[in-house]
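// run 5 | inverse folding | seed 20
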């Protein structure tokens, strides 16, 4: 038998890829964001809008970053932008811009139908009346003929003024430029209003800020409103980073691969590029389904925009009310320790991101932080480099916890490793085909009536919305069979029905204490809007702007 040569690594044309696909701007010194939604009334004016702003669109070329841990800049790196700009389009938006019917007919049906139409699949129709509580700007998404449904998503990100915590002036200038174009378009294109509990013309986004009492300056943090460190386990795929950076970041965030004759000889490798970008082979060694012509789809991807409101008060109250009983059953006398442990069991990680499988107890957590302090070079890798092989019963990390649901790692294999406690990658092929890129930022807004809302806008990128995002949302977050949890949903993000109001926290099978069952779980997170978008390449964006797409 002739040994097959390994495939050459993917080389990405970074200048042809929109920057918000490969890069999480919030980690690159852009903690402020705005999502502006537009409706196109006249195709020629919509194309003129894209053409007018085309030169300002931020690509994936890496500029010099203020983050010392960021990937090095590209050889032909542009200057660091003052504000980033990226575009995405709904199916209705592509139609409104005059994309040919033959091209549109090749689009995936879930993209054509749209997120709101598929609410029952996603669990967005829970709790009762949930769809009617979506923000006004999203209420027309199931009506393709509406004069007010979303066509274009313009995403802006910028740095902030540390004295006020507000975006830098360049953000307002870009917003004014978009306002000005729409105002002068003779009603050819308009900004849609109705974000949140007021008539806002854009969705305001911001990292959670803290104020330094010594300097009086604001600083962005990597935490979300429930208090957990966020954005630490994004998948790594071929070509995303330079080789020297990929070698480090793929550990724990790539895929488990057998590297020997024994099933416990495994390593981490980057995922196939085609799982996240169209035009490249995926984990099945196939090209993801895409629309013709090739130039229209290559280097593009699909995005699920999800506005998720976090009921922080309900979450905090549930923890306070439940922690004493949990501590008693779990043998934890200290109320602070009991609450922190209960919170970690919900997420699968401690608040600072330390995985429960590496630090099962409060004392283990403190010891971990002593060994791997936040300023240490090893910590980032340690937060991702783990498997669930040594925690089959979930005594450390509950099988139904949030982290274990969204990325089961080696936990779904039909067979166990030959060596007890070693990872068995026999089920990771399923997991590898369900990975998703997570982008976005939190939000915290208060309207003129003093009504406050907090949450996070998730921007989920993948090559197949159905196979990747929708599968994770439906099967892993809102159904529990893969995690031996029956109909129980994710305790953090799961949609609640009358049959799914509990969360089981296992205990050591050889210990003296029984499991603890959290009952009557409130709805901690509720969807408040969203849609499916196509994120084109720079080449495709130019074709759309010029109206010269030829599907033949």
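// decoded
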């Amino acid at each position: 038998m002739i040994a097959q040569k390994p495939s050459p690594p993917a080389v990405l044309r970074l200048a042809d890829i929109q920057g918000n696909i490969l890069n999480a701007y919030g980690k690159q010194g852009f903690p402020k964001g705005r999502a502006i939604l537009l409706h196109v009334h006249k195709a020629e004016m919509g194309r003129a809008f894209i053409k007018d702003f085309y030169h300002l669109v931020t690509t994936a070329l890496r500029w010099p970053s203020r983050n010392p841990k960021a990937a090095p800049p590209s050889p032909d790196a542009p200057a660091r932008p003052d504000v980033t700009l990226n575009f995405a389009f709904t199916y209705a938006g592509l139609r409104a811009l005059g994309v040919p019917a033959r091209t549109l007919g090749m689009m995936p049906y879930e993209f054509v139908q749209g997120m709101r139409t598929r609410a029952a699949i996603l669990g967005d129709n829970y709790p009762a009346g949930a769809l009617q509580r979506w923000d006004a700007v999203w209420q027309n998404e199931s009506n393709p003929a509406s004069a007010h449904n979303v066509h274009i998503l313009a995403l802006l990100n910028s740095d902030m003024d540390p004295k006020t915590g507000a975006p830098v002036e360049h953000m307002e200038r870009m917003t004014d430029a978009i306002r000005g174009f729409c105002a002068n378009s003779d009603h050819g294109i308009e900004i849609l209003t109705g974000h949140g509990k007021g008539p806002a013309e854009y969705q305001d986004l911001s990292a959670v800020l803290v104020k330094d009492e010594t300097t009086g300056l604001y600083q962005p943090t990597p935490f979300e409103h429930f208090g957990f460190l966020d954005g630490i386990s994004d998948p790594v795929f071929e070509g995303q980073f330079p080789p020297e950076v990929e070698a480090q970041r793929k550990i724990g965030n790539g895929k488990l691969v057998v590297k020997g004759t024994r099933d416990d000889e495994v390593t981490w490798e980057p995922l196939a590029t085609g799982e996240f970008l169209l035009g490249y082979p995926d984990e099945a060694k196939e090209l993801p389904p895409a629309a013709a012509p090739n130039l229209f789809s290559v280097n593009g991807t699909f995005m699920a925009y999800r506005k998720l409101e976090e009921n922080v008060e309900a979450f905090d109250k549930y923890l306070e009310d439940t922690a004493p009983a949990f501590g008693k059953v779990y043998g934890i006398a200290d109320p602070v320790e009991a609450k922190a442990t209960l919170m970690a069991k919900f997420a699968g990680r401690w608040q600072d991101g330390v995985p429960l499988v590496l630090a099962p107890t409060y004392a283990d957590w403190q010891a971990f932080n002593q060994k791997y302090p936040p300023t240490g070079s090893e910590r980032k890798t340690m937060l991702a480099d783990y498997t669930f092989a040594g925690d089959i019963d979930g005594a450390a990390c509950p099988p139904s916890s949030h982290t274990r649901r969204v990325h089961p790692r080696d936990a779904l294999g039909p067979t166990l490793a030959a060596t007890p406690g070693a990872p068995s990658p026999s089920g990771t092929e399923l997991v590898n085909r369900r990975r998703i890129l997570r982008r976005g930022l939190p939000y915290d807004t208060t309207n003129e009536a003093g009504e406050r809302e907090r949450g996070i806008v998730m921007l989920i990128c993948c090559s197949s919305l159905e196979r990747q995002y929708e599968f994770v949302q439906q099967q892993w977050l809102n159904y529990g069979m893969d995690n031996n949890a029956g109909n129980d949903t994710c305790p953090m993000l799961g949609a609640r029905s009358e049959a799914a109001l509990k969360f089981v926290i296992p205990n050591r099978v050889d210990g003296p204490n029984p499991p603890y069952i959290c009952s009557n779980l409130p709805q901690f997170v509720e969807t408040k809007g969203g849609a499916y978008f196509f994120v084109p390449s720079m080449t495709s964006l130019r074709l759309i702007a010029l109206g010269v797409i030829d599907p033949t």
